[in-house]
Amino acid sequence: MPGTEVYRSCPNAFEPAIATIALDQVGLHQDAELGYRVNWDLQAANGDWSEPGGWAHLMWGGAGYKAWAVFEDSLAYCAALILNRQEEAKELKGIYERSKSDLITAMERGAITNSDGTRRLSSLPGKNSGSCWGLLSAIFPSSLFASR
């Protein structure tokens, strides 16, 4: 797992999740909860856990995690519709549409234009370095770019 203990528990919505998931999967549920507690405490009143006032909200380097969050927002919205919870559906639709728009805009602004004019995403805006594995989540299962 990347980084130090402090790095993995730093306040952003995606990097600490790696350690949290690993701890939970090996049965260390209380340690997993404690390791992610700072991020839950940063959650906004409307349920936005992407640290809207901090750097993680603007950092699309965690696009894989953010694509999952957008996917989860869409599922919550669909669930509210299925349950005929119109007031909640309206609120969840707004959260879903904003989060999807924000992520797509950030990814488009950070795209790299190749010499042949094609565009691509790396793990860091405008940089050719780093892993791109998380970007796959923007395509499957989230279908973030399904209409493109």
Features:
about 150 residues, mainly alpha, 2 strands
What does this structure look like?
- With 148 residues, this protein is an all-alpha fold.
- The protein has 2 domains: 1-58, no CATH class; 60-138, no CATH class.
- It has 6 helices and 2 strands.
- Strands 1-2 form a two-stranded antiparallel sheet.
- The radius of gyration is 16 Å and the shape is globular.
Short description:
The protein contains six helices and two strands, in the order H-H-H-H-H-H-E-E. By secondary structure, it is an all-alpha fold.
Task: Give the SSE layout.
Elements: H1 5-8, H2 15-25, H3 29-41, H4 55-58, H5 63-82, H6 86-109, E1 112-113, E2 119-120
Antiparallel strand pairs: 1-2
Rg value: 16 Å
Tell me the total number of β-strands: 2
Structural class: mainly alpha
Q: State which percent range the strand residues make up.
A: under 5%
* Low-pLDDT sequence parts: 1-9
Largest sheet: spatial strand order: 1-2
Helix content: 40-55%
Mean pLDDT: 75
Largest sheet, if any?
A: 2 strands, antiparallel
Tally of helical segments: 6
Give the number of domains: 2
Cα shape: globular
For the termini, the CA-CA separation is 34 Å
